[in-house]
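ingest -> validate -> predict -> emit
validate: passed (alphabet ok, no gaps, 390 aa)
predict: started
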Amino acid sequence: MNGGGATTGTTAPTATHGRTITYEPGLDGLRAVSVAGVLFFHACATSGLDRWFRGGNLGVSVFFTLSGFLITTLLLTEHHRDGRVDLGRFWTRRIRRLVPASLTVVVAVTLLSTTSWFDLRRADAWAALASVTNWHVITGGEARLLQTIVGPLGPTWSLGVEEQAYLVLGFGAWWATRLARPARAVAIGAGAVVVVSVVVANVVSTWSPRLEFGTDVRAAEIAVGCLLAVALRERRAWIDAHARVLDLAGAAALAAMVVAFLTAGTAPWLLRGGHAALALVWAVAITSVLAHGRVHRSLALVPFVAVGRWSYSLYLVHWPVFLVLSPERTGIDGVALVAVKIAVATAVAVALHLLVEQPLRASTASTRTTVTAWLATSVAAGVLAAVVLA
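emit:
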């Protein structure tokens, strides 16, 4: 869960450290709140506290909307600055940002599945490597649903949704920049996605996993972020003029987010367009951060920013760590076990972030080298899974 896999920022271009959009620490803070919801949801569910943080899974929804906002902002800003969108550079950035950490986790889980810690199927590893875990869960049906989604790589379903969306969004933005009004074309396309996604959610199936994990159904949350990026583009003066109102709205949105994380659970209405409706709340929170008021200052506190920067690695490692630290292995349960799980997952995530994610993200290798390395290492990991796993 990467919250965009892009530089966190507003719509203002800057050349600082190679960024194309200005860094906004408050958005990293929003990432922290989102990933905390997911972590506490899963930690409590595996520690005998399944009634706590019942809606923490909605943290994934926040990341979807933030991803749509950041990626669209980045692409439109690049077009404004350079007069075009360089898809090669776009995909190179995505690979460097997402692949090293996720590939490391897949390989580690594969190797550890030779022990009693995990029971990973080779098909689950292959799906994670190909970024299609969400569809793998759906096509597996009821018989394999729990084995896959509760398996050590189950949470990679949301990464699959985002990366599939990046594919569509990248080509969509590239095509839009060939029209007279690119931003308008992106807005029309994103609006159509929201409508179609909500309609599909109400007609395609009655099976909950299809409605929860399908890219077509969850695309509305990402598209709302795209619409927000277009709406706020070159609106700095408007944001400043309404900063106080936006700050109050953002505080209300954050409060609603926390309430949802605590209580929402897996209510049926969420699967029938409710996720798209909540994306509007997440959009208000994002806009409020850009107003640089109290919401921004609160989310820009050092602990929030740090957790936000670790959020991708945290999301990748937390579930395998939680499965290892079971009540049977640790001899504890409840709040104490939740604390241990969060602490250990954070330590592992920080190591992954510092040793793998950040160094390779900063690589200056060419597009050809990056793509070749990605394909070669992914194939090698797939072969490893074929040999090691049953």
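Confidence is low (pLDDT under 50) at residues 6-19.
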